Model the fold of this input.
Amino acid sequence: MTDELSYQSATALAQLMRAREVTAVAVVEAHLRRIEAANGDVNAIVQLDAERALAQAATADGALARGEPAGPLHGVPFTVKDNLEAAGLAMAIGAPGRAGVVPAGDATAVARLRAAGAILLGKTNCPRYGGGIETDNEVYGRTNNPYDLAPTPGGSSGGEAAAIAAGFSPLGLGTDSGASVRLPAHFCGLACVKPTAGRVAVTGVLDDGGQIGALGDPRTQIGVLARAVADVALALALIAGPDGRDAGVAPVALADPAAVNLDRLRVAVYTDDGLATPTPATIAAVESAAAALRAAGAAVEEAAHPGGGHELTIDVWRSYGDDMSAGELYSLLRRWDAYRSEMLAFTATYDLVLCPVFPSPALPHGTMNKPGEIDPTSFTTPYSLTGWPAATVRCGSSPERLPTGVQLVAPPWREELALAAAIRLERDLGGWQPPA
Done:
């Protein structure tokens, strides 16, 4: 029963509880037992709030018994990456100097999931200050991939992805600056979305400089990870919108993926960006996804959008240090503006981009950044520069039986297009599969 409940989707769990077929206490207990059984190997949960979670579950059961209205995530457990504030839970963000820091309040996105009835189980591991391509730090150590402990779950939301894939929670929040939700979702076989920049308030998201914001950190967005695309879509709808504190959030309505006609979509597909050559299994996953979208009626053709986004991203990373002059930074921002405009023109021809997330499935720990080679996130960084929404969904496996996902990128404010395509691919190609 523990595995049966801990591998259910968030949507299914909420339905079971509303139908009185299972209690919130039973659901939380099942996930806590799963954490106790496997977190020692995976090391994804770094702060567990078991007592409060059980108390909140009992309260939720009582409210339902009294006939009180149930939120869309009534009694559903969730977890969050450690760079998002959660009241009463230590927030080290992998930095020894922050090990005793305990926020008094919740990040906006965390508070909104709680308001929808969800129950926070705990915080998940991430690299120091929440940024990095592998999940390891001096405070909590290394997180392992539930499909095989030798490969990394990626970063920087690797702890969150590993927790969800392992059945520790059905749903969670991470952050993504260049790959940090999409890469772990790909490595751990999950569904995810990085929303349009300005869709979700980043209030309560911290890095080494403190609270992030739209001007100081325009590429970082809160993303949703889950085992089912429907859960991703539901959670995004719950956390989206202005909060009166993040001045970078626009009041743009979020459309419903269910209203999308796939047979009207024009899809550009590519597998090689000129910087990284994907493995045969990665190419096969993209080709399978392209075939499934064609079968659904979409017009799919090979096409590549303007290049240079990853190279520009490397210059953006360089600007974070002390080596760039004010004049050079101003010139960089102008190049960034020009790239965004050039990319936006591409959307006059195509509604969706289908491509790899990463050139390969999960790699062994410590091998992600090889000396002398270009950073391997070139398939994801361009869409962080543009601020476009991007979804990931599992569409295959490697010969080593590791998950292989694809990336679906839509024009700004059109998350419903990427999510609708991801829902179809999940249905046709299998989506998330439990680790052995």
About this structure: The longest strand covers residues 390-397. The chain has 13 helices and 15 strands. The chain has a mean pLDDT of 97.
